[in-house]
Amino acid sequence: MILGIDVGNTNTELAVLIGDEIPYSWRFVTKTPRTSDEYGVLIKSFFRNSEISVDKISSVIIASVVPNIMYSLINGIKKYIGVEPMVVGPGIKTGMPINTSDPSEVGADRIVDAVAAYSIYGGPLIVTDFGTATTFDYVTKEGAFAAAVTTPGIQISIDALWKNAAKLPNIEIKKPSSILARDTVTSMQAGLVYGYIGQVEYIIEQIKKETGVKDMKVVATGGYGRLFYQETKSINVYDPQLSLKGLKIIHDKNFR
Questions:
Q1: Structural domain ending residue among the three candidates 54, 87, 120
Q2: Three-state SS across 67-132?
Q3: Catalytically annotated residues
Q4: Is 11 flagged in the annotation as binding?
Q5: How many CB atoms are located within 10 Å of the residue 125 CB?
Q6: Where on this chain does K(+) bind (predicted)?
Q7: Torsion (CA) 255, 41, 133, 147 in degrees, nearest 10
Q8: Residue 256 above 80 pLDDT?
Q9: pLDDT of 139-191, one tens digit each?
Q10: Is 75 annotated as a binding residue?
Q11: Which domain CATH number covers 172?
Q12: 183 is in an annotated binding site
């Protein structure tokens, strides 16, 4: 049994990966400082509340964009689960060439998403992840990671607005029924959500224009992916478990 761990800037997701199934998954906040013991106890507690034993874990694979927690996380896994985890990075087989000017700069999360999207949906395609940052990655027909766009996530945009404008409140991310707002909260929601939809559509359109590939599929994932998938025809598929599926695919490439 494989334990997949996706360490994001805001949340960390753990999941049991069995074949093509993901029967159990859990989340915890990434930014909370933890020791290796705390990580180990936390992971074991998730399993205690499920119907599956942590003792059945034979392999662990991690994709992380938060380097400063990795020492404690890895040691917690080794101490409490008894497994040396595989960490997605240099030297790990992914099956995907990284055709950028500096492949080492491409985050493990983007590689994992791209590998999963290409394996499941084929190429060429755009993979967009709505997380702490919103990313748009172009994968060629041949399966190469070829280009990337990075923008602030919508939550970052909201936080910047209310923290830097004294009279503006913190608001719920919600699309109002009309862009013609008549109060402060709705005006902020209209500007942020409608504006973000416009940004998403323009970036996707521009990638298609510059690559000359008009009919490529667009696959979305991430916490806010569902919202934008429902609000624009520019996104073809929403797959909330894309990164976990990618971890399983990469794991299998290294243990054939």
A1: 87
A2: HHHHHHHHHHHHHHCCCCCEECCCCCCCCCCECCCCHHHCCHHHHHHHHHHHHHHCCCEEEEEECC
A3: 109
A4: yes
A5: 24
A6: 129
A7: -10
A8: no
A9: 999 999 999 999 999 999 999 988 898 888 888 899 999 999 999 999 999 99
A10: no
A11: 3.30.420.40
A12: no
3-state secondary structure of 23: strand
Bridge partners of residue 130, in order along the sequence = 134
> pLDDT digits over 96-149, tens only?
999 999 999 999 999 999 999 999 999 999 999 999 999 999 999 999 999 999
| Residue 9 labeled ligand binder | yes
Note whether 181 and 210 are same-domain residues. Answer: yes
Beta bridge partner(s), residue 87 = 62
What's this model's pTM, rounded to 2 decimal places? 0.93
- Cβ of 35: how many Cβ atoms within 10 Å? 11
Residues 6+ apart with CB under 8 A from 58: 1, 2, 83
Ligand-binding site membership of 7 (annotated): yes
Which domain does 56 fall in, by range? 2-87
Q: Which amino acid is at 164?
A: N
